[in-house]
Amino acid sequence: MFGIRDRRREVAVRCVVAMVLTLMTALTGVDQATAAERGPRDITQDYFYVPLHSQEPYTSDVLGLEFAYDGPPRNAELTVDAAGIDGVAVVASGADGCRPRTPSFTCSKQLHPDSEGWNMQELKLRPAAGARAGDSGSLSYTLKPEGLPAVRGSLKVIAGRPELRVNESAALKTATVGETFSVPIVIRNTGDVPARGVVLLIEGTADLSAATRHSNCRYAKDADTIQCLLPDAVIAPGETMRVKPVPRVKPSRAALAERLSYGAWSFHSSGRHPGPPCCVDDPDPDLTPGQGTPLSLAPDPTGGRGTTFTTTPEPTEVKVPVRNTADIEAIGAALRGNVGTTHRIRVGYRNNGPAGTGEIRTVFIAPPGTEVIRAPYDPEAEEEMSDQVCRTKNRGRSYTCSQYSGVGQKVFYEFTLRTTSDDTRSGCVSVSAWTGESGPGGTRVKDTGGSNDTAPVEVAENGTVSCALPEEDDSAGVGGWAVGTGIAALAGSVLLVAGHRRRKASRSGPTPTPWWLTRFERVR
């Protein structure tokens, strides 16, 4: 009996031990998998161009050996072998205390999660003595993180650079709403080595959209940003190519004075936005691939003869005028009261579309039997010596206010008036829309509803209305906006909107809306 029990106990122990060993193996495997997942990954570009001419604009001689890493902070060593680029380039210096030597050297690195910044070792390269355009070699490197497997990589270093330039065009022909138009793009390589792989970026205003979505391009939701990758494209030095098929664009119902830009870069020829490698290895996840015929490059039959090209890698900007109209409806007011009474009124306009215009000018002429004692005033604009949105040149008998607004919006300006006589003649509000800024040199937008672009400011039911602008009076001596009512009157006049004020000096980053702007009204 005792022998049988012992054997049963022995079997049970063996089973427990086997289960424990299996569990430990599984846990060890999980730990190893977790460690492997957290190990760094080489994301360095495939090749690097060493500029031969220091005067080239927008060039960089700094190579970044870059690694993706999501694990905890960890020490590492990076060993670089430069023997393969002998005669092509020399590693002149390194960032973060890294001191290059020939033919190999080791640098200490601190890895940290990508969310805390880049894991990159920057090395400054210069062309080797006697290097010629097109000479190339291989730079090898090994990253050894503490407690994790080593990561090995290499890239091709090329003496010289491709320099892609695109055709300039000041403006396209006037387009028609809803009809597509072509945007010819011509690319020339002015560099000293071939461009292998081309990135094409096209950006436009929200009222322009791509008529065809090509399969090797990615598109923003409203199609105002397009990124196209042509990895097999090769442009030799001095060669000129055309983008085929020609991209086509369609203006929306609200389009008017639009703009678009385009530029081309060789793969890995620039480390700055908007050029590559912005979208070669890391496409924008918010962009969606197209399904149409892919874009490609074809030799330009004229060799670019008669074409003006950009002189820097920056994109070129093109004006796109669109034939369109807008109905701007004036909004007047009414006031009633005896001599000496004060009245707060709101006058303005509504943009009934269809065009999204530039500035909309509102001219307010006060009724002859009144005087303006408070007018819209922005103290920030005064401090910055910028124009007020509403200004007068005739001691407050009339004001001209200019602002931007969207289709469907109502915009109001608030004035306080005092009745000075029993004159029953009404004042007036008149509005007009412009393609850009209003004023000298500006272009007015055709108004389809001309009968509603003026409105009365009534002081009596049967009073006559006159929209004749009073003569200017340059003797108004307080910056063109004061009306002789004192600082107290100005302090209360606060009807502006921060997002559309004209500024001679721009601020960086969004700022909270000041309290004195909160009474300006925009109504949809």
Describe the fold and architecture:
The protein is mainly beta and 524 residues long. The strands form seven sheets. Strands 11-23-20-14-17-16-21 form a seven-stranded mixed beta sheet, with no helix packed on it. The protein has three helices and 34 strands. A hairpin with a 6-residue loop joins strand 29 (390-391) and strand 30. It is 9% helix and 38% strand.
Summary tags:
524 residues, mainly beta, seven-stranded mixed sheet, 3 helices, 34 strands, disordered N terminus, disordered C terminus
| Major β-sheet strand ordering | 11-23-20-14-17-16-21
Q: What is the end-to-end distance?
A: 94 Å
Structural class, from secondary structure content? Answer: mainly beta
Radius of gyration: 34 Å
Beta-strand proportion: 35-45%
β-strand number: 34
Helix proportion: under 10%
- Average of pLDDT: 81
Principal-axes shape call: elongated
Poorly predicted ranges (pLDDT <50, ≥5 residues)?
A: 1-9, 11-18, 20-37, 271-277, 474-524
Brief overview, please?
The protein has 524 residues and is mostly beta strands.
Please outline the helices and strands.
Blueprint: H1 2-38, E1 41-42, E2 47-50, E3 62-68, E4 74-81, E5 89-94, E6 104-111, E7 119-127, E8 136-145, E9 151-159, E10 164-166, E11 175-176, E12 181-182, E13 186-189, E14 195-204, E15 208-210, E16 217-219, E17 225-235, E18 240-244, E19 248-251, E20 257-266, E21 288-289, E22 296-299, E23 316-323, E24 326-331, E25 333-334, E26 342-354, E27 360-365, E28 370-374, H2 379-383, E29 390-391, E30 398-403, E31 410-419, E32 427-433, E33 454-458, H3 487-491, E34 521-523
Organism: Streptomyces phaeochromogenes
Keywords: Membrane, Signal, Transmembrane, Transmembrane helix
Protein name: DUF11 domain-containing protein
